[in-house]
Amino acid sequence: QVQLVESGGGLVQAGGSLRLSCAASGRTFSDYGMGWFRQAPGKEREFVAAISRSGGNTDYAESVKGRFTISRDNAKNTVYLQMNMLKPEDTAVYYCAADPESRSRYTRRYEYYYWGQGTQVTVSS
After folding, report:
1. What is the mean pLDDT of each run of 10 residues along the chain (125 residues)?
2. CA-CA distance, 6 to 78, in Å (whole number)?
């Protein structure tokens, strides 16, 4: 089992940047594909970005491509989400998640086993 704790959320103006972090504890961090998801009020939780176990492969939702970057540091048991050029529609609670299976892609929400508690990101216009 792995425990996930997100941090780095906050209030930012449109066009600004934030970096989210997700610290993992428990089992070997490099055994997990990692993803970021978000959920806005009244909407379903949606995929944002994912990274493979080694960090060699990444995936992004179309809505964030070119603006967000996912990365991981397996030595620090941490996954990051750098968010640039933020828009009001990026406002949501952001969750990190861990998938212990070996997959070619980690984009499907239902395949993730473990979830953090979420961190609020609010982008003002």
Report:
1. 95 98 93 97 97 96 98 97 98 97 92 97 97
2. 10
pLDDT score, position 68: 98
Q: What is the pLDDT of residue 1?
A: 85
Inter-CA distances, 107 with 18, 35, 117, Å: 22, 7, 19
pLDDT at res. 75: 95
CB contact at 8 A, 119 and 36: no
Sign, Cα dihedral of 32, 81, 118, 22:
positive
CA-based torsion, 10, 41, 117, 50: positive or negative: negative
Asked if residues 2 and 26 have their Cβ atoms less than 8 Å apart, the reply is: yes
SS (H, E, C) 100-118: CCCCCCCCCHHHCCEECCC
Distance of CA 11 to the CA centre of its chain: 17
Residue 80, judged by CB atoms within 10 A of its CB (0-12, 13-18, 19+), counts as buried
